[in-house]
Amino acid sequence: MPKTPHHLAALTFVESHEIKAKSWSPFVMKTFLTVPCALAGLLSATALFAQTPVNQYQPATYRPGATYFAEPPAPAKLWGQPTTNVSYSKNQDSALEPIPGDKSYLDALEGKGQAPEAKPAELPPPAMPSLDGTPIDSSFSSSCCEGNYSGPGTAVYGDCCVPCSQWFAYGGGLIMNRDLEKEVWLSNDSLDYSRQLMGTHDAGMDWTGGYEVRLGKYFAASGWAVEGRFWALRDTTDFSITNAGLAGQLDTPLDVNFQGLSYDNGVSLQNATAYFNNAMIHRLRRSSDFYNVELNFFQNPNLYACTSGASNFSVGVLGGLRYFRFAEGMSFSSDTVDTVFDGNPNEINYNIDVANNLIGPQVGFLGSLNHGAWNVSLGTKLGLYGNAITHHSQVYGSAGNAIVDNVASPNNGREFDLNGSRSRISFLGELDLSTSYRLFQNFTITGGYRAVAVSGVALSADQIPQNFEDFAIIEHTQAASDLILHGAYFGAEFVW
Question: Quick one: CA dihedral 337, 338, 342, 348, positive or negative?
Answer without folding.
Answer: positive
